Amino acid sequence: MASSAGSTFLNWLKSPAAREYFFSTHFWGPVANWGLPLAALADLRKDEDIISGTMTTAMATYSTVFMRFAWRVHPRNYLLFACHATNATAQSVQGLRFLNYWYFGGREKRLAAGEASVAAAKEGEKVGVTTKA
Description:
Blueprint: H1 2-13, H2 16-22, H3 25-33, H4 35-43, H5 53-72, H6 78-103, H7 106-127
Helix pairs in contact: 3-6, 4-6, 5-6
């Protein structure tokens, strides 16, 4: 079964339909668009205080709209759909991180943790314990 699917795919790659696909905007548009979700996924590791709620909302809305477009266009553009589904998911996670940080106590928890670590470092200096920064 796997070799049959593999040989079918290889035969398709050699066909004019494959060349037509790879030289069309149905392929290169989504490939170029993958920069957006890749950047969003990379941003998941950054601090919450730099997240823009307005931009995150705009990007999530944009990707949701274009997910529908990619699904409704004929022929369906699955590569574009996957690109925007990934971006919408990443932007939604960023939005939740933004809300948690600014509206649900995440900022206060981080500030309290920072103050606690500063107090512990000062206590260590009083006792004679050296800490490396």
